[in-house]
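Schema walkthrough. Field components (list of strings):
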Amino acid sequence: MIEIGLNHYLVLSTILFTIGLVGVMRRKNLLMLFFATEILLNSVNIAFAAISHYYGDLTGQMFAFFVIAIAASEVAVGLGLLIVWHKRYNNIDLDYMTRMKG
Amino acid sequence: MFEAIAFYLFAFLTIAMFYITVTTSQALYALTALAAGMIFISAFFFILGADFLGAVQIVVYSGAVMALYAFGMMFFDTTRELQEKKGNEYLVVGLATISAVLVVLIFSAPILGDNITALYPIGNEGNTQEVGMVLFTKYLVPFEVAAVMLLVAMIAGIVLAGKKMDESLTLMTEEEIKDMRAEKMRPKEIK
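Field assembly_structure (string):
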């Protein structure tokens, strides 16, 4: 209980990943959906850093860096698309995005 | 002892913040709770000895990404109450839990194999120096590819969010450019 091991971090990562997945499944607003995806990416980052620490290997941290870079570019492109959509249709609900034609 | 206290404290805080993020109906509350959760997550990185990763987490997530979200939220109508899908709550939570446990199993499967040898063992230099050594030798090509990806994302963001990005000054004739300037200079008529 007192000694914190790898399993503690993996369980925490699982809980956060569950929270993020619940958010992805029940949100209808696209901005809130982006928030939930950020939670998913962060929970995986915790798992990477913990494994990296407990196995004395730096590779996990490297992967965490690349995950952060991917998250940043996803936000930039996603928000740009969201702004374009909001200008045209004046809402950002998922239910209205059922067709792909612009 | 202190590590355990810090772990449980920050675990509780992070879970609480992210729970608020996915359940609240106010976009502003979700944004602030997400920013707080990101900072609490960086505490785990500091506990785990990944100092550079923790600093990057604070700078990139609570700095850049949160600023982008706040900027984006100014475009949207955030005062309106968000409507959520009214599905079966138990089904959603159950499915999410099963998928998350699957992810952890995928992660721990190679660990259970118990034949891990550290490719890049953590030495006794500082974390930042070692990260730099590994990043610029073994992971140099992925690093450069990530840089190109960020550049592409930046250009895409500018083109998508900017005004009049479908016109190109280099493809227009001189007269067209003059006309556009004159139109811009003309004072707007009062309705």
